[in-house]
Every structure is written in structure tokens, then in C-alpha cells.
Amino acid sequence: MRLHALHLQAFGPFADRHTVNFDALSADGLFLLHGDTGAGKSTLFAAICVALYGEPPTDRSVHLRSHHAPADLLTEVTLEVTLAGKRLRIRRIPAQLKPKVRGPGDTPQKAETYLSEWTSNAAGEGHWEPLSKSHREAADEIKALLGMSRKQFCQVVLLPQNEFTKFLRADASERKDLLGKLFHTQRFASIEAWLADRKSTLAKTRDEARADVLRLAERIQQAATDDLEPESGAPTASEPTTLTDHARTWATALCTAAAARQQTAGTTLVHAQQELTAFQDKERAVRELARRQHGSSPGDEGREKHARCPGPVWGWGP
């Protein structure tokens, strides 16, 4: 929010028309309002609040109508301000009494609101474009741009006369809501919600992965032989934080043991094949020696076998 100008008329101690040019005061980036008690410092803050919200600051007794103003001069406040990049002019005429046009006495003056925005036409000429005369529409637009209610605005922005202590003494819930709207922390709340949802999703995925690890470990135990001792150091659900690393170490040890058993079995198989070949060679040598001792040749041996197996006998029946 940046204040540009404040126009007062018959407001508080200001009996006539007065203008405060904040642009000129803030040329150096910082300015100070000071003066004697009753000089009207708090009235300026009250006028800003009336312009923005249509009411004076909360918990503060402010008489809007100047006692010194001419009877025919209405009390009103006009504020030129930039909110969220929009330069607005807000004119407020509070409810008050005014002299009757005819005859003696007063007549009620209803509260009026005029909201305009500074715009430029195609030729680059700036002008005030009326936006609304509705109290509700103006209030909604200003609150949406400013992001604070009147009470919050008075606690955070308007802090004259040591009223900052009210903000400091507010309970944690009130300060949280106030600072959240002031500094637009909704995006952080959205991030927090996303992280919580992400945490829940990852926890579910982690639990499913742990269940898969336990199922695989059970299958490994069923497939492993007793000499591999698969029960020794097997992962269990009672150690969720170290389940994966433990299961990996356990499975690696089993693989190493199985590989060693396979290598031993392979070596044993080679030795057995070598022994079988040696026995077969010895058997052939013994047979050859036996044949020679009987003085027969391989052909004779064949004839002997044929002689021991006579052919069919033919005969006739009676």
C-alpha cells in the first residue's frame, strides 16, 4: 500500500478543507508525523481508516464531524492510494446531519461512497474512471486488494500512541491469522499440505516395498537348502528402519554361499567324471587282457557268442 494524498473536509479538528501530499513527504523514502497533543496526528490515521473502511479505527473514540466547521460544509474524506498495483481514489461522506434546504433545522445525510481508478485512454491521457458507488462493492474491492480487515489494519498498519502493544499481546491464533493475511502465507500452507500428502504417499510406497522385501526373503528361505542356513540373520518385520539394508546383506551372503557350493559341486563333478573315465579305461584293459589270456581274437569271441546262442529249431507236428 502506498499513500499519495489525503483530502480532509470538516473532519475532526480540521474545520476547513485540508490536503496532505504524501508523495511530496515520501520523496526521501521516509517521513515522520509529529506535533503537539491535539494537533491532529491521530486524526490523520483515523481519516485514512475511514477512507479505506468507511469507519474510524477500532477501539478508538473519534468524533468525525468538526465542531468548528461551517454548518453547510459536509464532513468527508478522500484518499488517493495504490493497492496491489491499482491507483484508487476513495471518497467517503459519513452519515451526518446537515441544514435543511428550506426552513430551519437539520436533515439526515446518508453515508456515501465513491470508488474510482486512475486509467489512461488510447492517447495516453489519464483520468479517474468511476468503479462503484456501492458501500459493499467498494469494501469488498478494497479488502481484496489490501488483504486485511479493519481490525487487522488498525493492529498492523495504524499503530500510533503505542498501540503496537495490542498486537504483541494478541494470542497466538490471532497473530497467526493476522500475519498470514498480511504476508500472504497461503502459498506456504499449500506447500505444507503438498508435503504432508507427499509424505503420506511415500510412506505407503515404503510400506509396500518392505512387504515385497519380506515376501522375497520368504521365497529365498523356501528355495535355499539347509546347509546354506537361510534362517540365520533373515530379515524380519520387527526392524523396519534397517529392513532393506539387512535384507540386501543377507541375500548377498546367501548368494555368496550358494556360489561357493556351486563351485565345490562343479569341482566334485569334474573329479567324478575323471574317475569314471579312469574306471572305464581299466575295465577295457582288463577285458582285453582276459581275451588275450584265453588266446582268442576278437573274431573268435564273436563266433563263440554265436555258438552259445543256437538258431531256431525247425520241426513238424504229428
Automatic annotation (TrEMBL):
Domain Rad50/SbcC-type AAA: 6-219
Disordered: annotated segments: 223-244, 287-318
GO terms for MF: ATP hydrolysis activity
Family annotation (SUPFAM superfamilies): P-loop containing nucleoside triphosphate hydrolases (SSF52540)
InterPro entries: P-loop_NTPase (IPR027417), Rad50/SbcC_AAA (IPR038729)
Family membership: Belongs to the SMC family. SbcC subfamily.
Subunit structure: Heterodimer of SbcC and SbcD.
PANTHER family membership: ABC TRANSPORTER ABCH.3 (PTHR32114)
Name of the protein in question: Nuclease SbcCD subunit C
Species of origin: Streptomyces agglomeratus
